[in-house]
Amino acid sequence: MNAQKRYEIFARLREHNPEPTTELNWSTPFELLTAVLLSAQATDVGVNKATARLFPVANTPQAIIDLGLDALKQHIKTIGLYNTKAENLMKTCRMLVEKHGGEVPRTRAELEALPGVGRKTANVILNTAFGDPTIAVDTHIFRVSNRTRIAPGKNVNEVEQKLLRHVPREFRRDAHHWLILHGRYTCVARRPRCGSCVIEDLCEYKEKVELG
């Protein structure tokens, strides 16, 4: 795929959705970090239901520490793997209080040092909370990047590096959300909705679904 075609793809995605954002509900960097930690193998809808119960009771690291592990588990028990997630969140809260004054750090190294936080989660926080031009490659972005040929790669790291190289600078901050939403609602896994796709004529997917 050439640079001109990539530019047009992101220009159309921007025209279609000028201000994309996460579908997780949050109002502070810590709330976003909590939601992302809870989101592994869970839907955003499910996470939002759990955080709607948790955040009015505890939405700071110290408040969650004060809540206690057992009570935290009760608030998030509707989410898969809630025991492990609760333990990681509690450890993260302690580290945030002890090492960062209760604030979410702004560097990748400090974020990735937090329990349960890997490169993808750090990218989400840096991009969504702080506006950095990072791209967190999840299953949706991996599929869209390979299927359209925007940034084909054998693994998430390869796709991320290609996206960072090839996505035009003016689109880089929002590319993460455009690609996730495109993969979630249009370029879906089993049967992509090609007929209703705003970039269908630019996409290099060879097995396009005629009727969408």
TrEMBL record:
<keyword id="KW-0004">4Fe-4S</keyword>
<keyword id="KW-0540">Nuclease</keyword>
<dbReference type="Pfam" id="PF10576">
    <property type="entry name" value="EndIII_4Fe-2S"/>
</dbReference>
<feature type="domain" description="HhH-GPD">
    <location>
        <begin position="38"/>
        <end position="185"/>
    </location>
</feature>
<keyword id="KW-0255">Endonuclease</keyword>
<dbReference type="InterPro" id="IPR000445">
    <property type="entry name" value="HhH_motif"/>
</dbReference>
<dbReference type="InterPro" id="IPR004035">
    <property type="entry name" value="Endouclease-III_FeS-bd_BS"/>
</dbReference>
<dbReference type="Pfam" id="PF00633">
    <property type="entry name" value="HHH"/>
</dbReference>
<feature type="binding site">
    <location>
        <position position="203"/>
    </location>
    <ligand>
        <name>[4Fe-4S] cluster</name>
    </ligand>
</feature>
<dbReference type="GO" id="GO:0004519">
    <property type="term" value="F:endonuclease activity"/>
</dbReference>
<keyword id="KW-0378">Hydrolase</keyword>
<dbReference type="InterPro" id="IPR005759">
    <property type="entry name" value="Nth"/>
</dbReference>
<keyword id="KW-0456">Lyase</keyword>
<keyword id="KW-0227">DNA damage</keyword>
<dbReference type="InterPro" id="IPR004036">
    <property type="entry name" value="Endonuclease-III-like_CS2"/>
</dbReference>
<keyword id="KW-0238">DNA-binding</keyword>
<feature type="binding site">
    <location>
        <position position="194"/>
    </location>
    <ligand>
        <name>[4Fe-4S] cluster</name>
    </ligand>
</feature>
<keyword id="KW-0479">Metal-binding</keyword>
<dbReference type="InterPro" id="IPR023170">
    <property type="entry name" value="HhH_base_excis_C"/>
</dbReference>
<keyword id="KW-0411">Iron-sulfur</keyword>
<keyword id="KW-0408">Iron</keyword>
<keyword id="KW-0234">DNA repair</keyword>
<feature type="binding site">
    <location>
        <position position="197"/>
    </location>
    <ligand>
        <name>[4Fe-4S] cluster</name>
    </ligand>
</feature>
<dbReference type="InterPro" id="IPR003651">
    <property type="entry name" value="Endonuclease3_FeS-loop_motif"/>
</dbReference>
<keyword id="KW-0326">Glycosidase</keyword>
<dbReference type="InterPro" id="IPR003265">
    <property type="entry name" value="HhH-GPD_domain"/>
</dbReference>
<dbReference type="Pfam" id="PF00730">
    <property type="entry name" value="HhH-GPD"/>
</dbReference>
<comment type="similarity">
    <text>Belongs to the Nth/MutY family.</text>
</comment>
<feature type="binding site">
    <location>
        <position position="187"/>
    </location>
    <ligand>
        <name>[4Fe-4S] cluster</name>
    </ligand>
</feature>
<protein>
    <recommendedName>
        <fullName>Endonuclease III</fullName>
        <ecNumber>4.2.99.18</ecNumber>
    </recommendedName>
</protein>
<comment type="function">
    <text>DNA repair enzyme that has both DNA N-glycosylase activity and AP-lyase activity. The DNA N-glycosylase activity releases various damaged pyrimidines from DNA by cleaving the N-glycosidic bond, leaving an AP (apurinic/apyrimidinic) site. The AP-lyase activity cleaves the phosphodiester bond 3' to the AP site by a beta-elimination, leaving a 3'-terminal unsaturated sugar and a product with a terminal 5'-phosphate.</text>
</comment>
<dbReference type="InterPro" id="IPR011257">
    <property type="entry name" value="DNA_glycosylase"/>
</dbReference>
